[in-house]
Amino acid sequence: PVARLAERSGIPLIVQMATNPEVTSRTSCVFRVCFTDGFQGRVMAQFARNRLGARRAAVLYDLANPFSRDIADIFTATFTGAGGRVVAREGYPTGQPDYLPELARIQAADPEVLFLPGLHPDLRRQLAQIRSLGLTAQVLGGDTMYFRNPADLPLVEGAYISTHYSPEMPGDAVRAFNQMH
User: Would you state the pLDDT for residue 11?
Assistant: First the structure.
């Protein structure tokens, strides 16, 4: 909605984290400085297939959320297009409190990677239940799989996520951060 207002008013708008491609579609003064949902769906699928060597993937996505649904579709198409097989694709309603039925079906399909393109509250519950089930698939996520609370960090330990940070980015702040880590 803000993009439409900026466009109507002729006010330049630069968005830093709006990954939905529609934000800048058919605009002349709305710009983004981040990647799109399609890009991260493709990159995560290519990473799973080419870098991790995964042959079997599973996807758990929010049926009602366009971000989750679209990135799940792109991941699926890219992964299968690269010769992989999606052995389980489970949808759920937003805010579902229990993912154990979907995760049990995913576990039974024996994927090597599990892509979770959900939103933060759902991801926290999903990751906790993945751990409780002992599901061993490598967890992959989009840019929404971030956790600021240090108590939540064990949930994402070992997961691969797409992010807007790169150690090759220019700037003193990035160099200083890289030296600390």
Answer: 92
Number of C-beta neighbours around residue 5 at 10 A? 11
* Pick from 46, 37, 44, 26: nearest CA to 65: 37
pLDDT tens digits, 134-147: 999 999 999 888 87
β-strands 113-116, 138-141 pairing: parallel
Give the residue ranges of DSSP H helices in the chain.
2-9, 37-46, 66-81, 100-109, 120-133, 153-156, 172-180
* Separation CA 122–CA 176 (nearest Å): 34
Tell the burial category of 34 from Cβ atoms under 10 Å away from its Cβ (0-12, 13-18, 19+).
middle
**Using an 8 Å Cβ cutoff, are 47 and 103 in contact?**
no
| pLDDT for residue 173 is more than 80 | yes
